[in-house]
């Protein structure tokens, strides 16, 4: 039996807006997640809060325990999680979120398509009385990439920030920008310490090698470069694809990761993941994957990687597959690891999967 529909109060504008809103929600993407600092000194304790940088420019935190309760309710649909705190961080997508510090006094940092790095006091966010309305919270740190001067004094657009790295010992934040430069910012003075120039195309990723006072950048030009932070000079170029055919297939460096000893480097490039021994400057293994690699991280002498397929893959340093875990997002952009071994993967559809240290799914939620 077909239910009759009353069209006398039909509102075309409301219907159109609802369709657009639904499509926008389906296309939202979580580009990066970060586990919040744990006030408990016991590193084996499970994480509770996770922060997400989302394609609509918002930065939001979610309670994992609350998401576990939603998942256990038995609903077949992926639950939409309610944020414990949310702010409109950027005009355009938020590409990265990180914590500057490891305790409640740390800063929550974000960067995005508008060329800004913004920072909030994490302790103040935790104590916010109006979690969602906290979108009006003003950052205590607001850094903007410089514009380059062109002919007749015309200014270029502000280059976007695609990724960040931090060094709390030197008070520095590093940004991988869209003008092929990496910017080193002084946290205390809110000014640029140095500009790392040498890449011929925009930067996708950056990691800090703090034990050597270095940073490593990955670029669209197909190389990773190691920089001395004392001089601002490039001291080593890692060419992932020296042969012409390989460079044509995988011309860019999409992600890089360092292990805990900062002696091993993983580089994602198209459907290829390579592992390098940095002291020897030697590629020890090269893995061919079925989809483009978009993020990677080290864990216990293994490499975890995600990309343009709904899988969390784990490899050993020789390139052999240890495990592959199906995930909810059809394309994954972020993988985050908690000291307890709990992993978060996130991507298309604003979906986040929380995976236990044993490889089982704890919960899935939509931001």
Automatic annotation (TrEMBL):
GO terms for cellular component: THO complex; transcription export complex. It comes from the Eukaryota. Signal peptide: none annotated. One of its GO terms (biological process) is mRNA export from nucleus. SMART domains: WD40 (SM00320). Keywords: Repeat, WD repeat. WD repeats lie at residues 87-121, 196-237. InterPro entries: THOC6, WD40/YVTN_repeat-like_dom_sf, WD40_repeat_CS, WD40_repeat_dom_sf, WD40_rpt. Belongs to the WD repeat THOC6 family. This is THO complex subunit 6. The gene is LOC104209956.
